[in-house]
Design a protein that fits this description.
binds magnesium ion, alpha/beta, Aldolase/citrate-lyase_domain (chains A, B, C, D, E, F), about 15% strand, metal ion binding (chains A, B, C, D, E, F), about 260 residues, homohexamer
């Protein structure tokens, strides 16, 4: 398993730069994990992962000593539980717009009495090395992170109430969707200036609640700015971009002819 | 991508005969696409596709210049969004029985302000060749088709209201289920005479609302009849049938001994 | 298909010991099926199966003459229908806590007039050998088993009402989750003494309603005890355990040095 | 396993019409098998199968009660042994041009003292149901068919000597390559008139040696002609053709507009 | 298929920068193809491709309008034929050290009378759109490139004779192995100074014979230098490097803290 | 990577009990690895692995800290090199009957000057963590084990000469094939009494040459006996057996009714 768990890193106040993977091949995720990210997210919402590919990639990335996060499809909270059973250390749920959404998400992520997660972490225990069910049970609720995506006006309106839901450990800002919803479908631009205020507001409220602030970015410069602002888990681009950028740099010296 | 988009063909008033694929191998879908269909549907409800196989088959069929439709499982509207992100040009949602069903489907299919589709068409943009997010955003709502299945008495009762939902582009008649529900489970026969009236009724209402009428058939003769009637997207059989029929014809000359 | 169907065995009052498979490789399921189980369950909740792997494993296990059950993810009733379309003889739905849950499950499992299952059993009919749709339709509702998991206090409270839902054929006790929910998250132990009473209670109520009582166990001894008590379908361990136990026995003679 | 083994059918003097499958999805092979062929060939030379897909398709086709043949890549005799270990009843080796080729092929197909096949039929015995290694060993050499492809002038010249190799059970004529090699690369046409003589010659020699004559065709009419001539295993087309033909027939009634 | 074939580009005297892919996921190859390379190589020698993954990636990359080359495992000339059947436009054979190696390679690559390639390009013809076998046959020998790797002292000694083999279209220099073999296992460094002379020598001889000179490099600067020297097909790095480089650039702005 | 390399364990004179895996799912191999074996073999000869499954399983088993061995198909020495590139620590080559066989095997396993292994261990270096090519090169020949199977009379006759081949690190006795070949096809029984003498003879000669003696067994008792005799790497059964035995033990208490 990961040399240092995600929750430990976050609790230590360190910033986690997060690799983002849409390709379902586990070796892609592992190669990215070995490139220097503090954690890797496997994307089932806009990315191309399915349950089996997620399971295999969790194994591969964990083997590289890097914690895995899984973003599940909209409203697929059953998959949130499954991701944990497969060994993910955190789950990102998109479009958590209401307290009901947050409650359903928390229920899937946490064992009783906090939530309603169902028992069966056979694969996860293989990866953690927990010898007994009791050991895993005792640690699980405290060591798995539930990150609710805030990416609509409705979610902004409900932000405090969502953060107050027991079992929600943090929020994850989706800037593209936030730009799209706040502009009523006119603009999609995660770096748009009109996002600055909500991005700061969400951060402040989340910090005040003592929960983990996280966000998506598409460049290292933006990622660094978000870290300086106070965000603690910061996604930086995605695999298609890494490939494209790597190819571009590789081909650059061949072009000036 | 497809040489001509599905929406262009439909807007031009042309009839689209639709190949239907349950097998999850992308080469099966591609071979069928190259056989002369105007579009190909990948079936996740009664067929054997899952998200990864759908993604791969969309690539293969698009490479053949043929548009792809995806039928998602009952109520799996998150998958409707994912299919679009993967490059599908249309989605068929089964069992849209109420306005609430239709609204949830439209929300998944359309970006704001029409719906609540979330942003992330990385793979689709690779296939369309859209250079900018803005370009894709501008076209997306108008060029992706949401087809709601009308296949129960409840749906018939709510037909006009379903068609009035903003973001629903057409209906797709499911004759087998319609026969099953109208007969209260006594009969399953998509060619049953008692379907003639509802099939005409649905067509008329859909045309009156200016939306796209589509239907499933299991033979070329029936498909042609539906085209003559006025349906514009008409599924003709399915892959297991193509294989079976092809084998039968091939073996015919060997049998008379 | 299976030499003897699951429903026939159960109706004959025989006990079915159930192999349990989390690994998505169809050959694992088939090898386990050939080991002597009366049926095999493919687990999509805590196990690692997805739709395509389930489809393939149903084929492999059926080829071994053994009936297949599929446990779907929490609340994924669309998958219940799909499992039947793929040739499963029974489906286990986890966390059926209310009458509404049970009704939704039954709707997905049974054709009208009992439920709302949608028509499309192409693959299943290939396995059963049914020549006509009418033949399959006539048998389907009576020969496919819907097993609702009872594994929370809420479900216990609603037990009779859940069993009264038309289309629910039996219950499946989840002892681990029952221990977890009854202890409010303090204990996870499917063999805990405090489960004895609920396990007997559920059995009695289920028998009184004339429905099928089923349960999960992790050892042959426990499985036998449940059979003696009156349970008719009894899961015994799971594939990771079979492998581990097999390896342990194999290595035993090499250890005493 | 198959209801009747391939060798039994052939020994009984019956004609076996052979389905031909290049697609690696096991369900494609199974669907074709259920369409009425006496056996199915999985093609690893010009088709798209690899070892794992062959293994899975052998399971699927065997489940349909149909015997499986595997055509291996040119010179890949190790794969011939593997195909038998996976449960194939026959292997076709392409481009067997010399006695040395035939000897190497026979060595891979037959256990000592006839050949040098290595022991390890774990999967095959699962399919045959052989309870003991001794039982499988006793039957194996007699019940697995090695079919050497005759498809070059060199092979024609060596025909008798190839047939005399102990462990070669029959020949399989490759008309396309035969046309290509006999015309020195000018023509590829498996139905060319100049093939009539060699096709009759090969048949006569093979029959005289008491071995099995087999051939590839691309139409039912040609297949029937070959059967009437005396060939006993006759391939009829291939999966891409079945699909294309099935689609063509399905779409025919829609075209005349 | 590719908008412009590889052979056309090479004949036009243009330089082809070649992407190199070890990952078996077709989407990785396609994404790289879309990044600006003139062709993409799928590596089965040191990379992780197998026949099925090669077939799928050829489809994906061709869909992007980019020609595909396949490097086969050492001595696996049967796979060279298969790669062409799957739609590859060129094949690289590693460790072609003798005239016999070259002859065997050419035999697999070219139809008679030049070689002994066996007939069966079903998949390739689907991609090229050739309507008739005759059409494909006429073009095939002239439009598929056989590139023999020169990467040992023995190969250097036999260089002229290898180039004289009919059916060998070009050579592909393997600098790493060349450094390893020339240094007798002391050094592995494809950029080593002692390679300059052999790299120039191979180029000169190849040009003199009118055949295509190709080479592997691991950086754009080196690739450009090789182009300036006169090499026409030049591999630039490989997918693991593109990913690693892309990630490094992406993370760079986050590091200086 | 593995906590302790295979070569270190063997050099320390410790006995390595070897798990044996035919199933291509990486999770099967990993679960077996975690069960207590000192190493795991992935079988491509009689087992069902192919190159991609081997690559994935090497990753999974290495993640469990257990070294991986790969048995390649007969004569497939190109795959021996590939297995090392994928991170295997040892390769077993079946049917090494002559010095020529042994030389070809050693050539594929060792870099110059010992052999002719070609450079390209991208994946292996990801697993070993070697930072530079030079570092991997320096260690590779000494830390990868080539095990030649001795399983025919011919191999017995050539035993000393095979062991004298530079680059052959040890032998691996195949008792089933040895029984089959020594009995001229009459008997297949790896525990047959007439094998005792050759098994002792091979051990003595191998020890005298200072190389590693290894052997296959199908039971823990036999494995222990071979260890006591002096064999150092001892395969114990195979995955199908582990599953079957685990199931048998699990079902035992349910049977006595
Ligand atoms: Mg979003
Ligand atoms: Mg329907
Ligand atoms: Mg449970
Ligand atoms: Mg041929
Ligand atoms: Mg090389
Ligand atoms: Mg052996």
């Amino acid at each position: 398993m990961a040399s240092k768990s995600l929750i430990e890193t976050v609790r230590a106040g360190e910033t986690v730069y997060l690799g983002w993977v849409g390709n379902p091949d586990p070796l892609v995720a592992e190669t990215i994990a070995r490139g220097g990210f503090g954690a890797v997210n496997l994307d089932m919402q806009h990315g191309l992962h399915d349950p089996v590919s997620v399971m295999r990639a969790i194994g591969s990335v964990s083997a590289a000593g890097v914690p895995v996060i899984v973003r599940v499809p909209v409203g697929d909270f059953a998959m949130a539980s499954r991701a944990l059973d497969m060994g993910a250390q955190a789950v990102i749920a998109p479009m958590v717009n209401t307290v009901a959404d947050a409650r359903a998400f928390a229920d899937a992520m946490k064992y009783p009495p906090i939530g309603k997660r169902s028992w069966g972490p056979t694969r996860a225990m293989m990866l953690t090395g927990d010898a007994s069910a009791a050991a895993y049970l005792q640690r699980a609720n405290g060591e798995t992170l539930s990150l609710a995506m805030i990416e609509t006006r409705e979610a902004l309106d409900n932000l405090e109430a969502i953060l107050d839901v027991d079992g929600i450990d943090g929020i994850f800002v989706g800037p593209s969707d936030l730009s799209l919803t706040l502009s009523n479908g006119q603009v999609v631009d995660g770096d748009a200036a009109f996002l600055d205020e909500p991005i700061r507001h969400i951060l402040k409220v989340t910090q005040a609640k003592g929960k983990v602030p996280a966000i998506f970015t598409v460049s290292g410069v933006r990622a660094r700015a978000m870290a300086d602002l106070g965000y603690r888990i910061i996604a930086v681009g995605l695999d298609a971009l890494y490939l494209r950028e790597g190819v571009r740099r590789m081909l650059e010296p061949t072009l000036d002819r």
